[in-house]
Amino acid sequence: MKIFSCLLVLLPWYAFAAPVHVDVQGISSKKGQIVLRVWDSSENYLKEPIFTQALPAKSASDGELRLTISEPLPAECAINVYHDINANGVLDTNWFGIPKEPTGMSNNPKGSFGPPSYQDAKIKLSGQEQVFRIKIEEI
């Protein structure tokens, strides 16, 4: 019974495992891979993703690609997608930390003098199947 009670306490933090689809727009090349990362709090935002998925960019059609997350995600999270053109598994940046590869965030916010905040990028999951569109762009 204690285990059941503990599970009920945790339930609001995670949405049910309904699929979350991310339609990535703005893919300009079929080189490399498209990488999706998810963060569940402002504390680990852009540091340690709780989920990562990659698909070959050659899977894109007309500059778009759908990534589907079937695993349970937190009820609130931020999603980043970037085009890892050289497939090195890292979002390459210049000397100032500005991405050299196309990137985008959930809600498609624009950062000013840095990446968008977690508050601007966070989305709410309903526990139902949902589709989000993220446009990736070179900065």
Describe the structure.
This is DUF2141 domain-containing protein. This protein has helices spanning 2-10, 118-121, and strands at residues 20-25, 33-39, 51-56, 64-69, 76-84, 103-105, 122-124, 130-135. It has a single domain, classed as Immunoglobulin-like, CATH 2.60.40. The strands form two sheets. Strands 2, 3, 5, 6 and 7 form a five-stranded antiparallel sheet that branches. The protein has a three-stranded mixed sheet with strand order 4-1-8, with no helix packed on it. With 139 residues, the chain is mainly beta. The chain is built from two helices and eight strands. 27% of the residues are buried.
Question: Short summary of the structure?
Answer:
The protein has 139 residues and is mainly β. It has helices at residues 2-10, 118-121, and strands spanning 20-25, 33-39, 51-56, 64-69, 76-84, 103-105, 122-124, 130-135. The model is unreliable at 4-13 (pLDDT under 50).
Descriptive tags:
2 helices, 5-stranded antiparallel β-sheet, signal, mainly beta, globular, Immunoglobulin-like
Q: Can you tell me the CATH class? A: Mainly Beta
The coarse overall form would be globular
> What's the SSE pattern?
HEEEEEEHEE
Identify low-pLDDT runs. Answer: 4-13
Strand % is: 25-35%
Layout of SSEs?
Elements: H1 2-10, E1 20-25, E2 33-39, E3 51-56, E4 64-69, E5 76-84, E6 103-105, H2 118-121, E7 122-124, E8 130-135
Parallel strand pairs: 1-8
Antiparallel strand pairs: 1-4, 2-3, 2-5, 5-6, 5-7
